[in-house]
Amino acid sequence: MGEPTTDVIQGTLDMLILKTLSLEPMHGFGITRRIEQITRDVFKVNPGSLLTALRRLERSGWLDAEWRETPNSRRARFYSLTRSGRKQLAVETSDWHRRIEAVARLLKAEG
Amino acid sequence: MSPWRQLHQGLRRLLDRAGTDRDIADEMADYLERAAAEHVAAGVPAEEARRAAHLEVGNAGAAIESIREYGWENAVEHAGRDLRVAVRRLRRTPWFSAVVVATLAIVIGANTAIFGLVYSIFLRRLPLPHPSSLVAVRPMHGGPVIVTYPEFVQLRRNPGIPLTAAYGFAGMMIATASGTESLWGDVVTGDYFNLLGVRPLLGRLLTPADEASAAPVVVLSAQLWQRLMGGDSSAVGRALNINGHSFTVVGVMEPSFAGLYFAHRVQVAMPITAAGAAHIYDLANYYLDFIARVPSGANRAHVAQLYQSAFSACCQTTPASIGADAASTEPRISPEDPPYGDTSYGSANPNWHVDLTDASRGLTWSTDFRDEYRQVLIGLLAGVTILTLLACANIATLMLARAAARRREFAVCASLGASRGRLVRQLLAESLVLGIIGSVVGMVVARLATVGLVHNLPAAAATLQEAVTWHGDGAILAFTTLTTLACTMFFGLWPAKRATRVDLLSSLQGHRPGSASRRSWVADNVLVVSQLAFALVLVASAALFVATLRNLAGGLGGYGAPNVLLAQISGDERQGVRPAVGPFAEDIVRTTSAIPGVTSVSIAFSAPAFYNGEWTRQFALPGEVAPQGARWSSRINPVDEQFFNVTHVAVLTGRGFSSADRQGSSPVAVVSQAFVRSYFGGRDPIGRSIVFAGGQGTVTIVGVAADTKYDNLRSAPVPMVYLPFAQFGSGLQLITLIARVNGNPAAYAVAVGKRVMAVASNLTVSKVSSLEGVFASSLSRERLVAIFAALFGLVALVLSAIGLYGLLTYRTARRTAEIGMRMALGASSTDAVWLVLRQTLRLAVCGVAVGTPLALGVARLVRSQLYGVTAADPWVFGGTGAVLVLAAITASMVPAWRAARVDPIIALRAD
Fold first, then answer.
1. How confident is the model at residue B339 (pLDDT cuts 50, 70, 90)?
2. For testing the chain B interface, which of A56, A59, A73, A77 should be mutated: the one with the most B CBs within 10 Å?
3. Contact (Cβ atoms closer than 8 angstroms) between residue B723 and residue B551
4. Which stretch of DSSP H or E encloses residue B377?
5. Residue A38 pLDDT more than 70?
């Protein structure tokens, strides 16, 4: 057995991002760290996929993005959840629970 | 999802690529900096912290690239880049590009021109508001019924039926500055223009008040207004003399309105009551046509029922019968096209019933007009489809050869990671660029072709040309775009797929492209053979149609010579009476014969191929019994003694007429062969008598004349009785003058007119035309087909020759080394030429073998359109095959010459 996998479960990255942003607006690096902290390093997020996902979510209208000045006069892009993003999070969360339960039942039945 | 947001942000990125790229870079830089800052905060030295951050992020460039790849705008950008590269590449090979664009332009132009015909004949709607609710109302009782104006006045009082307008046509003679213009005018009820929704260009159109008061007013079509008054805006209020009566012009119709009938332009319209008052139209006896508006959503069957009871309540059930059924018809004046073709519809239903016919696309004079053109257009569409396939195969050959030369380049691209789809897309971009340029040029070609046709067809067919002319309608643009896309896919996709199926190793090692591929060799052969076969089909059809046209035009033997002048002479209409022309016949012949250059002149009621109305009489033949009590009737034609000489209608037995056959001498007749066949069963009729019904005289047959054609050049010859003009022509109000002249008949038109009018001041000369012109206008459909077929055949021949030339050049170039080797071993240059020629002949023979059965099949399909030539004419098919082989040999000249000039030393060193 090698190291335990830290890949984000396929299809859940969007939900993780939406959940993270539901607490407060944040920049890309903040989202990565927050996901890692809350999941206690079970999931590591690849910056390329994260930033692409952010763009996709923004295009879909679930996120708003704005540039803010950083202390060392650079620009940082801050993302916040929109109203339809909040709805989407609810949809994805309930969907996720439904699937988890189904898998859990299946595993229990087998055990 | 928010498509609007997708579109908006995608567009913003397309427009500001640099800005969005900077955004992505900034965001990534910020990410890295924060990651590094975190490490620094944990006590790691700055340099090491940055390295750790980069390690965490991985390849930042690739990450940025993957972020950039997101979004639909990237596909657009790639397409744009592919197109730019394609344009650059095509400019590097101008000859190739020019040939492909020219080929496409011709094909797309031909497609568009023919679709333009289909569109204007079958699809275009009348330029009126809500055309789909227009219906022609046709009352029937066993057959079409004559409904006259007084009956219509009763009919329209019926509250159950929708608003209905009635109209008819009448021959009108309009006095102009330079003489008299005869035309068919419309006589209409007051609601006519209002119901159709026609707007005036000037003044006003006709109203119910005009009908009620029988006001002597007319409205002109914009075209006639231009012609008669030069488009003078003060035309309203002017007087026009029509059939000797003064009418006031009250308005001009909008230019877009050309009338209800296809290929028959409305020229002038007057209230039907005014036409009746001026004796232009016989209100009590002439039949009317009806137009109404019934919304397409309404229950038309129910509306037809309403009409049925309305018609049966007010109208008599006289069937409209014209022609053979009538006891005898008197010769009738016919200024232009006879509007009496539309009497063949109807059913055998003996009760009243009313047809509501869709009029949204205009009506036609004869019910089979569209059927006739449908056949022609199906033929033309088939031809143009074959031509398109041929051209696409041709371009595909060229594209393949071009792509084959780039194999090594493709292999390099593929080894650098380009996907096959990417390579195919790039090649397709080239096809698309060619397709777009080709279609734009093609539209211009189509316009020119249509304009060219308009000029090429005879003036008498002007209304038809006008009717088939189009001006960049949306439907035609859409059609051209679709055709272009389909062609591009055909000639682009397949070569692109084949060319990009690269074997990396062998391509990079420098094997000659495709040298080992037997499959591609076969595919090239198939392409070229199919081109030759298609060309054969088109050339053979062209030969058949051109032969048909020639046979039809030459169907009257020596009469068809180019030096015959025809003219109609009638009494003057301005005085409202029609004096007989007959008594002046001898003077007319004498004075016109005296014109220098006129060699012979004849006077007759009608001349072969020159429509002048029909004159039929019923008769009995003593000694012959008509089957089952049928009544015999025949056309009659009073002619003078010069007629048979001038028209070259041979008198086969007996004698023609002479100056001895005059008033007072015993009445004689010459009958046609068809008459002898029909009524005497082929037995010798000389000396027998014809007794005309109604006490109109008895004549003795003194001769038999060869058959000739009077109306339709395609129709079978009809029985005809020729009578001496001196005995039977004196009461005629309208006669035909036939003159043979030296040189161009048009040059004599003015002199003939002057001499005739000098005979008696009340004679009018009209329809002065050369026999050639008459043929041309009566054969305009055949000409249209022959011109198109000949063009298709020519283009097909040239294209297939180009295709063959391309293939042979390519193959000869590839075999240079082999030929050099052969020559080094002692082969002569003749052997080298033979090498190429043998290949050519093999391909050409294959093409002929495949194409001939195809062409025979196509010829069988168009059999009904042919005349005087069979669908399997050995001369046509043998000749076509020979032409094709000859073209193939011509195409192989240059490659063969190159093969013969191969220098073995250079050829062998090159590899």
1. very low
2. A59
3. no
4. helix B369-404
5. yes
Residue with tokens 């809500």: B130
Query: A104: burial class by Cβ within 10 Å (0-12, 13-18, 19+)?
Result: exposed
B6 to A59: CB separation less than 8 angstroms, yes or no: yes
* Least Cα separation, residue B19 to chain A (angstroms): 13
Nearest to B31 among A29, A52, A72 (CB): A29
Instruction: Report pTM.
Output: 0.66
Q: What is the DSSP letter of B130?
A: S
Contact A28 B31 (CB under 8 A): yes
Q: How confident is the model at residue B797 (pLDDT cuts 50, 70, 90)?
A: very high
Q: Which residues from chain B sit within 8 angstroms of residue A65, using beta carbons?
A: none
Label residue B72 exposed, middle or buried (CB < 10 Å: 0-12, 13-18, 19+): middle
pLDDT value of position B326: 34
Q: What is the DSSP letter of B562?
A: T
Please tell me the number of Cα atoms within 13 Å of A11 on its side-chain side.
5
Give A42→chain B minimum CA distance, Å: 16
Instruction: Give dist(CA B656, CA B704) in Å, integer.
Output: 8
Q: Would you state the pLDDT for residue B270? A: 95
- Nearby residues of B448 by Cβ (< 8 Å), 6 or more positions away: B109
Q: Do B1 and A77 lie within an 8 Å CB cutoff? A: no
Out of A14-23, B15-24, B372-381, B662-671, pick the least confident.
B372-381
Q: Sorting pLDDT into bands at 50, 70 and 90, what band is B193?
A: very high
- The single-letter code of the amino acid at B705 is A
Q: How far is CA B173 from CA B185, B314, B458, B572, B763, in A?
A: 9, 33, 23, 9, 13
* Count of beta carbons in the 10 Å neighbourhood of residue B383: 26
Interface test with A, best of B14, B55, B67 (most A CBs within 10 A): B67
Q: What is the mean pLDDT of residues B37-42?
A: 87
Measure Cα distances from A14 to A20, A78, B367 in Å.
Answer: 10, 16, 69
Chain segment B82-111, per-residue pLDDT in tens? 889 889 989 998 888 998 899 889 888 888
Closest chain A residue to B5 measured between Cα atoms?
Answer: A59
Q: Is the pLDDT confidence value at B312 over 80? A: yes
What are the DSSP E strand ranges found in B521-607? 564-571, 598-604
In this predicted structure, the answer to whether residue B905 has a pLDDT above a threshold of 90 is: no
| d(CA A63, nearest CA chain B) in Å | 12
| A83-95: average pLDDT | 92
The verdict on a CB contact (< 8 Å) between A60 and B1 is: yes
Cα separation, B741 vs B593, in Å, equals 10
Q: Point out the residue among B2, B24, B33 whose CB comes nearest to the CB of A60.
A: B2
Contact A27 B34 (CB under 8 A): yes
Taking only residues 43 to 102 of chain A, the set having a beta carbon closer than 8 angstroms to any beta carbon of chain B reads 46-49, 51-52, 55-56, 58-61, 70, 72, 74-77
What is the predicted pLDDT for the residue at B517? 63
**Residue B291, token pair as written in the block:** 């137009």
CB-CB neighbors (< 8 A) of B38 in chain A = 33
Contacts of B63 in chain A (CB under 8 A): 46-48, 51
Contact of B595 with B589, CB cutoff 8 Å: no
